[in-house]
Each structure stands twice: as structure tokens, then as C-alpha cells.
Recover the amino acids of this structure.
């Protein structure tokens, strides 16, 4: 790894930190541009606040000087819960004084005239597979590369079901797609897959791949449907407990959690309804675009956007609650999120629908949703506590945009409770950062949401841990938006998604590097999980790690791909002793079938790349068949890079 990071660092380039004058003062990224007042009244240094400036490639002098000052030394290494815990209290307020900086101008872009730091070698992964597995993989890749076949695959499966031939289609899928993209159905085979990966230097994120969505029959709010949903959520919580147990058998593993498994998706949908109108109202009220609104703007524009906003008897009382941190007569979006979340019992009436003479407005939650919210938080807390007890990290998955606001809310509540130095109940030697949230960077608002949540973590004093992905529901989201007549939440172009993803990585890597240099705010340093199949994004992240001399020993930055995808990249990262993980789905074939269809669709979207992968597999099959010399593809702890 040291050799990899040192490569191409000799001669200064236009974008190299060495091209900066040595006279520039080597200030730390954690400089007190923002001061945080705790309950004792003392000021503590704080990571710079987020600017809304979107200039893409400017380089700040402080950032360039910081890159010079960073140390070049880099060292690398690779009982169910018996009861539900009480609901979490609303966190204590803090007072902040903020000077913003240009968040997109913090880091130099990676050098474009250098040899790639990482050179994926397909033989590293293919050399570990048997001949039958390789033949199956070649079939899978060829099928995924056929876009027409992938497009009609769901309809074909339905035809087999109507003809009572699902046993035949399932048998084919089980021996091909399921065998390659999933770990299995039984604990023994699942743990075996995780251990095989660990032997190659690759960690695991165990993922119970059962999915849920909102109902289309209009009866989801009935008493019987609600009771069934809660029974199912209790059963899935127990399955997550089992997942934590399996993950604990392999060191430093993760287990993924889908919040739709812990509550009725309809409840999540109704509680998420106010997010978009409230955000739009805040932006409309912010006339001078300084990111803050006063009491009049809050009362006249922002508060009425909530379902229960018109019923508020004392808007000034609500505003005082939102302005409790600074008490300066101005509030920003993070203030609103912190004060008006569902975890604050005083704010919950704002989420409830309004009853009028014409009937009940369908915008907002119903009374029973409040109780179901409490149950969901209790389940989530119990599952994460189980993770803490087992020494397993929890990765909260992103899902559909129309209930993602409430998923984000649950993730933030769990991070506030478990991602702090004072968190109790963790197993000895367990990672200090237990809960990660996932950000889908194909969303047009993804960067804003991520940076808002990071700012909130700084104010509330917990460690921000995020997994950045591009996203898995693009076509579904666009189709739904077109059908229901609202703007698509997805970026208009692929280039915009790439830019959003890379910008998010740059933002977090800069702050990680700054904390490592300054060392004053280590408890507030973010953690970044770079989850991507895009080799350019991996390369850019590695360039940043090298240029800013980030120490990856304690895994402040990790990389990840899905099981069965981009194995050449995964094994190359493992060979360099970089923190690399595979998402490892498991479950019955019927439960994971939607996941498998999405994987096929994702691969078909990059047909040229997947057909190239199939050519590598065919080359390995041919080499073995004709008996040519076998290339050593074992994963080495050293590298000639």
C-alpha cells in the first residue's frame, strides 16, 4: 500500500501539492472556523461548516498547504436482545457561530497525466473459481449483457409462474444468478462465503435481501393490514438479530439493515410526506439565500408547509424551539431538522393530517402512525444494540425516495445514540463507529442532504458515517415520477451523477485528512465508505488518499462492491491491503429475486463492460481447457505497484 500511495509522487504537477509554495502556512483542516459551545460554555474546535458554493475545481490555499503538511507515514492493516430500549431523548442544543468556506474547492483534482494507482487483474478473482463456477459465471455475464433479454426477464418469469413452471425457472436461477450474486440460504454456507472472502483480505456486509414497498390496493391503513405489518416487522427484526450473529463469526464485519423491514412502508411513506414541501418552503422563504429564515418567514411560509402547521396555536413557541441552539432570531435547515423531527414528541402533531368539513386530507400521517413510529424506533434500537453486543457494524440501506426521509431520520437517531465515544453496551474491541447511513448520489438533492447531515453531526457531537452509492432504483423512480406528475428526483444526466458522487467523496476525504493532521476533533471525524463499481471513482478516491496522506489503519475510508461484481477491483484493493468489503446478500430465492433482477438490470446498463468481463472469464476457461501454464493469482500482501 505504501508503494501504491507513493507512486507518481516524485515530480510536481499542476495539481500536485508539491507545486504549492512552501511558505504557505500549514494550517489544519479542523481549524476553528466554527466554534461549538457545549453545555459547560467552553468552546471546542470544529470542522468547517458546509458552504452552498458549487464551484467545482478551485483549490483553497489552506487545503493546498494542508496537503504539504500531512505526514507521509502511512500504516495499513487490514443472544438476541431481550427487550426494547426506551425511546431516545431529544439531544441537548448547541450554539454555533459559523464562517462558511467553499466546500467544493477543498481538494485538488487527481492528476490526469499519471499511471493509474490501481490496476485490476481479473485473474486474482477468477483463479480462485472452479471450472463449473466459471462456466456458470460466463453464462450469467452473457445473459446480463443481453439488454433485450434482461428487459423482458420479469415478464418471462411471470409466464413460467402462470404455467406452474416456476420450479424450472427457479432451478436455473438458483444455479446461475443466485449462486454467483448471493451467499446462500443456510447459515453454514453464508458464513463459509464470508470466511472465503476474509481469507482473500475482503470483508463482508451481510445483507438479508428481503424488500418491501408501499401497497397499491389502498387498504394498507386498515386495522388488519397494520397488525400484519407489525407482526412481519417483529419477525424481520429477529432475522436481523440472526444476521448479527452470523456476521459476528467473521472479524470486523457489517450487517445491513433495511428500515422497511422494521416498519410498514406505508407508515414510512406518510411520515416522509412533509420533507419535500417543507424543504421547498424553506428555500422559498429564504429570500436573500443566506441559508436562514427569520420568525416572520418561518411563520408565514415554512410552518404552513407541515400537514399540521395550520393548527399551531403559538407559532412563536415553535420558532423558539427551533431557534434554541443560537437564540438569535434566525434558523437554518439543520435547526429545523433537529427540532422538528419525529424524535421530538412536541413536534409530532405537525406530521398529522388535517380534518376538514370535506373529509380528511391525505397529506400527512394518521394517529396510529405515531405509535408505529415508536415501535419502529424500538426495533431499530434493539437491532443496533445487538450489533454493538456482537461487535458488528450496522449499515442502514437506502431505499425508495418517497420514504427515504424517514429512513434517514431513523439512521440519524441511531447514529446520535451509538456513534459517540460515550456509547455504552458495545462488545470489547468493537468498532467505535457502529451505524452507517447510505446516500444515493444519483439523487439531485444527495449532496445537500449529505452535507446537512454532516453539519448536524458536528452540532450534536456524534461521528458521521456514510456509505456513498450511485443508486439502484433509477428507472423505477423516474417512471413513478412521470406517472404521478412530480419532478424526477434523479439527476438529469449520468455525468451529473458522477460529479455528485465524486464531489461527496472529496468533501469527506478532506475532512478526514484535516482531523488526522490536527488531532483535536478526532471524535467528530467522519467515516467514508466508497461503494462503487466505477473504477474512475475508485481511482480518484485513491488519489485523494495518497495526496492527503490519509492513514487508513483504523478504516476511516473503506471501499465496497457487490458480491459477484467488479471482483477484479475488489481483489486488487485487497492485494494493496486497503479496507475492501463485499455486500453479501442472503435469503431464500423467492425473497432475493427482486434483488437479482436489479443486479441483472444494473449489469445490462453497462453492457459493454459486462461483455468485457465475460471475455475474461472465457479466456480463463480456455486457458484451463487447453492446459496452458496456470498464472499465480493468489492474493499477496505485497505489491510491485
Amino acid at each position: 500500500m505504501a508503494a501504491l500511495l507513493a507512486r507518481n509522487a516524485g515530480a510536481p504537477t499542476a495539481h500536485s501539492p508539491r507545486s504549492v509554495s512552501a511558505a504557505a502556512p500549514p494550517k489544519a483542516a479542523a481549524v476553528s472556523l466554527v466554534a461549538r459551545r457545549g453545555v459547560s460554555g467552553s468552546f471546542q474546535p470544529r470542522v468547517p461548516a458546509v458552504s452552498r458554493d458549487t464551484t467545482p475545481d478551485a483549490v483553497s490555499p489552506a487545503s493546498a498547504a494542508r496537503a504539504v503538511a500531512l505526514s507521509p507515514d502511512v500504516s495499513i492493516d487490514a443472544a438476541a436482545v431481550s427487550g426494547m430500549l426506551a425511546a431516545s431523548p431529544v439531544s441537548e442544543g448547541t450554539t454555533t457561530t459559523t464562517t462558511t468556506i467553499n466546500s467544493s474547492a477543498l481538494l485538488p483534482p487527481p492528476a490526469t497525466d499519471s499511471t493509474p494507482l490501481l490496476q485490476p487483474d481479473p485473474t486474482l478473482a477468477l483463479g480462485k473459481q472452479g471450472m463449473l463456477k466459471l462456466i456458470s459465471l460466463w453464462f450469467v455475464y452473457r445473459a446480463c449483457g443481453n439488454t433485450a433479454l434482461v428487459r423482458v426477464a420479469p415478464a418471462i418469469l411471470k409466464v413460467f409462474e402462470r404455467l406452474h413452471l416456476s420450479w424450472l425457472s427457479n432451478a436455473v436461477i438458483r444455479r446461475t444468478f443466485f449462486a454467483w450474486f448471493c451467499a446462500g440460504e443456510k447459515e453454514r454456507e453464508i458464513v463459509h462465503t464470508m470466511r472465503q472472502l476474509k481469507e482473500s483480505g475482503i470483508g463482508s456486509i451481510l445483507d438479508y435481501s428481503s424488500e418491501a414497498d408501499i401497497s397499491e390496493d389502498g387498504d394498507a391503513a386498515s386495522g388488519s393490514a397494520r397488525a400484519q405489518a407489525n407482526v412481519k416487522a417483529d419477525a424481520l427484526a429477529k432475522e436481523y438479530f440472526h444476521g448479527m450473529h452470523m456476521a459476528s463469526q467473521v472479524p470486523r464485519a457489517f450487517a445491513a439493515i433495511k428500515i422497511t423491514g422494521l416498519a410498514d412502508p406505508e407508515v414510512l411513506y406518510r411520515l416522509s410526506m412533509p420533507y419535500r414541501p417543507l424543504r421547498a418552503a424553506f428555500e422559498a422563504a429564504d429570500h436573500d439565500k443566506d441559508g436562514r429564515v427569520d420568525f416572520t418567514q418561518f411563520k408565514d411560509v415554512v410552518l404552513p408547509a407541515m400537514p399540521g402547521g395550520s393548527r399551531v396555536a403559538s407559532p412563536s413557541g415553535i420558532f423558539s424551539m427551533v431557534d434554541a441552539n443560537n437564540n438569535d432570531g434566525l434558523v437554518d435547515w439543520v435547526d429545523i431538522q433537529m427540532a422538528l423531527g419525529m424524535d421530538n414528541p412536541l413536534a409530532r402533531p405537525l406530521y398529522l393530517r388535517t380534518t376538514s368539513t370535506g373529509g380528511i386530507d391525505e397529506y400527512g400521517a394518521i394517529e396510529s402512525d405515531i405509535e408505529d413510529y415508536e415501535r419502529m424506533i424500538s426495533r431499530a434500537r434493539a437491532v443496533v444494540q445487538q450489533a454493538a453486543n456482537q461487535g458488528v457494524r450496522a449499515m442502514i440501506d437506502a431505499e425508495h425516495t418517497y420514504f427515504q426521509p424517514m429512513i434517514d431520520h431513523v439512521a440519524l437517531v441511531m447514529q446520535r445514540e451509538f456513534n459517540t465515544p460515550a456509547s455504552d453496551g458495545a462488545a470489547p474491541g468493537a468498532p467505535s463507529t457502529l451505524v452507517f447511513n447510505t446516500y444515493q448520489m444519483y439523487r439531485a438533492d444527495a449532496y445537500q442532504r449529505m452535507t446537512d447531515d454532516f453539519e448536524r453531526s458536528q452540532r450534536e457531537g456524534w461521528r458521521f458515517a456514510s456509505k456513498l452509492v450511485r443508486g439502484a432504483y433509477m428507472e423505477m423512480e423516474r417512471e413513478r415520477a412521470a406517472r404521478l406528475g412530480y419532478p424526477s428526483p434523479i439527476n438529469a444526466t449520468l455525468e451529473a451523477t458522477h460529479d455528485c458522487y465524486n464531489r461527496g467523496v472529496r468533501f469527506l476525504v478532506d475532512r478526514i485528512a484535516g482531523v488526522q493532521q490536527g488531532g483535536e476533533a478526532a471524535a467528530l471525524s467522519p467515516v467514508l465508505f466508497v461503494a462503487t463499481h466505477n473504477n474512475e471513482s475508485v481511482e480518484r478516491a485513491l488519489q485523494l488518499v495518497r495526496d492527503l496522506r490519509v492513514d487508513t489503519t483504523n478504516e476511516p475510508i473503506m471501499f465496497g462492491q457487490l458480491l459477484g461484481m467488479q471482483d477484479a477491483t475488489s481483489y486488487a484493493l485487497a492485494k494493496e491491503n486497503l479496507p475492501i468489503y463485499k455486500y453479501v446478500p442472503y435469503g431464500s430465492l423467492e425473497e432475493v429475486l427482486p434483488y437479482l433482477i436489479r443486479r441483472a438490470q444494473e449489469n445490462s446498463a453497462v453492457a459493454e463492460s459486462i461483455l468485457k468481463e465475460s471475455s475474461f472469464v472465457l479466456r480463463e476457461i480456455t486457458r484451463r481447457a487447453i492446459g496452458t501454464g496456470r498464472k499465480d493469482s493468489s492474493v499477496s500482501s505485497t505489491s510491485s505497484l
Remarks:
- The radius of gyration is 25 Å.
- The longest helix spans residues 223-247.
